[in-house]
Every structure is written in C-alpha cells, then in structure tokens.
Amino acid sequence: MSRQFTPKVVTANDLREGDVVYLTADDRWSRLHHEAELLSDEAQAQTRLAFAASQRNVIVGAYLADAKAGPHGPEPVHFREAFRTRGPSNYAHGKQVDLGKQVDLQNV
Questions:
Q1: Residue range of the domain that includes 34
Q2: Within a domain: residue 3?
Q3: Pfam families from the entry (predicted)?
Q4: Which of 16, 19, 45, 15 shows the shortest CA–CA distance to 32?
C-alpha cells in the first residue's frame, strides 16, 4: 500500500543574500511562506523541484518541505520550517523586524 502524499512547498536559500525563499506558482522566489505554491500532487512537486534546481544562479539547496493549506496561504507543518520562516535567531533584523511590524499591524 502506498503512502498518501503530503502537500509540499519548494524552498531554498537565496544565493546572494542567504535568505530562505519559496517558489511561487508564477515562478518567482518569495521570502514569504504564505506566497509559496502549495503542491498537492507528487509528480507536480518533483517537476517544480527540478525547475528550482535548474536555477543555480539564483538559489541554492532547493528541497520539498511539508506544508498545509492555511487561511492566508501555505503554512509550515514542522518546527524546522516554521523556524526558517522567521529568519536568523541571533538578533532581530531583516525578516524578523518586518514580521514583527506585520504582527503589530494585525493587532491594531
């Protein structure tokens, strides 16, 4: 009996800046997880991963990460992927500052 395919997103790191990025349905690399293309078919996921791997001048280390549908787009399933959406953990800068502003605006 084969296992049911778990939805995935394609993720990698930006080659120049090192930021975590996600492949969108329109072939862009976004730093926002909720903009990622949620892949619910294994063959399609492998095709999108191959496309990502061909972009060696833009990204490095592409792989498929488990995700689930959320109210605003895909959401990470595992702690590691949730942690990667927040950026470096040593001090607040870049993505962490931007995410903090988004949370503050949502609480207004």
A1: 8-106
A2: no
A3: DUF2849
A4: 19
Tell me the mean pLDDT in the region 99-108.
47
Residue 2 lies in a domain: no
Task: Determine the average pLDDT of the residues in 59-74.
Answer: 97
Total of domains in the chain: 1
Long-range Cβ pairs for the range 100-108 (8 Å, 24+): none
Within a domain: 1:
no
Task: Say if 99 falls within a structural domain.
Answer: yes
Query: Rounded to an integer, what distance in angstroms lies between the CA atom of residue 31 and that of residue 20?
Result: 6
Say what the pTM is. 0.80
d(C-alpha 49, C-alpha 8), whole Å? 10
- Confidence at 107, pLDDT banded by 50, 70, 90: very low
- Element containing residue 63 per DSSP (H, E): strand 59-70
